[in-house]
Amino acid sequence: CYVEGDEVKVVVVKIQDGRIADWKGQVRDWALPETYETPTINGTMTQTRRPRRLPVS
């Protein structure tokens, strides 16, 4: 919701894995793959490695 005159703050968080729980109590863990395929301009696919995690200080 945007209110004119209020300051705007944006928070960007890199997420690589997580856990989802629903109201019934079912829990599912998930993680992004280390490598994934990305299309190139000419239509071929190339494998790309996900960036490594940086230590949080």
From TrEMBL:
Protein origin, superkingdom: Eukaryota
Organism: Didymella pinodella
Region (Disordered): 38-57
Name listed for the protein in its UniProt record: Uncharacterized protein
Polar residues composition-biased segments: 38-48
